[in-house]
Amino acid sequence: MNHISSVTNQPLGNNIASGQPLSGSAQGNYQGQQVRLLDAKPFTASVAEEMSFAASEKRESDSLRNRKINDRFGGKSAVQQVAEDYLKLVAKTPQAEAMRRFAENLLDGFFRNPQQTMQQLKNFSSDISDQYLILKLAAQLAGEMLARDKQAKDKLKNKNQLQMAKAHFEGLAEQLLNSSENAEASIIAGININQVVSSPAGQALNSAQNLKDFYRETIFDTNNLLSAYEHILNHCSEGQLEQGIALLLRGLAADYNAQHSSIEKPKLQLIMSSMQKLKTLTTIRESALGLFSQFSRLQPQVTHQGIMAGG
């Protein structure tokens, strides 16, 4: 016991701190067995090496992951990427051509009166996602013109104007993003469902602008099945309930399947589930009304109002 006490009471910290090796006398007998206190430095170094290796692997993994993200998104925000991807997707469509012509007019108008930009934009469309797309397209056009004129030294004045125009449109796009709490989500939602609301089925139901507002209010403001049903009743006539729900489901699917959805995908899933339930209930309701109509023809003396009052 005395041997062990003399060993354990040695100032090992001083030896380690000073970098000196442990004395060979750091040994003794314990319960008849010879024991020896080993130098901890080699083990500490080994552990430190393992930890350094693990940390290095993590840094490399994080770096690789970040490079992949940056390569894919170029450091852009979700809404910027959504807008750019959409403009590429619809580049050859009549809708994109109309937007491009207006963006060109907006760029020409900037040289005359920059203050009128937003008013011109609102005259073209009151929808925030359309306005954002136009501003990004106008900034893109200014950038393309700058690139073409890069070597033309005699167009210095035009270059300065184009640089001012590009910064102007990008600044207005940023203002739109900060215009309200849900502005960015509203823009992404509008872009993600653009093709749904512009389809013949969508246009038969209402204007693209109203349908976008209808969709946004659904995902932002409805909290349960009842509120969703009341919301749809407020926007759709008696004969349009099924079409309204079907359009919402198509919009939800497009938003959910997009790389960047307007809101969290789990919440979109919950809303889709509610819409499916409403679709089923609406189908049952329409069937019941059909049966009631047949019954009324067989019993002309029984009125719709009478049955409802009696029920």
From TrEMBL:
Signal peptide: none annotated. GO terms for cellular component: outer membrane. Transmembrane segments: none annotated. Gene3D superfamilies: 1.10.150.630. GO terms for biological process: secretion. It comes from Spartinivicinus marinus. This is Hypersensitivity response secretion-like HrpJ domain-containing protein. Residues 53-234 form the Hypersensitivity response secretion-like HrpJ domain. Residues 1-30 are annotated as: Disordered.
